[in-house]
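ARCHIVE CARD
Drawer: 12
Card no.: 0347
Subject: one protein chain, sequence and derived structure
Cross-reference: see card 0346
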Amino acid sequence: MGTNLLLLPLHNPVDVAEQYATMDVVANGRFVLGVGLGYRQEEYDVFGVERRTRTRRFEEALALLKRLWTEDHVTFDGRFYQVKDVSIRPRPLQRPRPPIWIGAAADPAVRRAALLGDAWISTSVTTFSAIKEQITLYRRARAEAGLPPAADYAHSIEAYVAENRQRAFDESAPYIAAKYRSYYAWGMGQNVPGESGAELSIDDLVRDRFVIGTPDDAIRECRKRRDELGFTHLIVRFNFPGMSQANVVKSIRLFGREVNPALKETP
C-alpha cells in the first residue's frame, strides 16, 4: 500500500509525517511513501508555492520527514520549514521508518532518487530503452555515494488487456491518446531522455512504453522488462479518463487472472 506519487513540495512535511505514520499503523507496517516533484505550473500556483523552489523544498522536506519518523523532540531550521521540539504520534510501525520511493523521469531526478530515496519509481512516459540506461545511472550514483544497492526498484506501466489485440487497442487507444495529449500540453516529457516534448501518436506511445494487447502479449512484455531491468515491483495503471468502468474492471480481472500468475513463476 502506498502513494504514487505524492508531490512532496506542495505539502507540509509535519502533516505528511503524521498522516502516513498513521497509514503505516493501519496497514500493519506495509506502507510505502512514493514521492515526486511534479511539473505543472498550475499545481504550484494553486498551492501558493513557487515552482522554482521545488527541488530545494523537496530535499528539505525529505530530510525533515525522515527525522520526524525516527526521532522525538525534533528541531529543524531550514529555509522553507522550521520546527522546534516536535514529536509526532503515532509513530510508524516499520523500523526505522517506512520506505521512501522517489518517482523520477529526467536523469538529474534519477540521480536525486538514488541519493535520497530507498527506491526509484520509473515513469510510464519514458521508453524502455531509456529506462535501461537510467537504471545503470541510478545504480552507479548509489555506488559512487557509498550507498548499498537498493533492495527495491519499482517499474510503472500503462496497461490494457483484452481477449484479442485489436479489441485491446480499440477499447483503450482513444482514451490513452487523449490523456497523453493533455500530459504533453502540460509539459510532461520535457527533459526526459529521448523526448522532444512534442505530442506523440498512439503508436509511438505504445511502442517501447505501454503494454496493450492480449494476456500473452502482456506476459511476454512484462517478463522482458523484469529480466532486463530487474524490477522488484510492477505498478500498473489500467484506468484512463473517459474509459467505461466496465472495461477498466474487465482489463484488471483479465490481467489478474492470466498475467499475474505467470509473472510470479520463477524465471
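Annotation on reverse: The first helix runs from residue 13 to 26. The chain has two domains: 1-98, 132-267.
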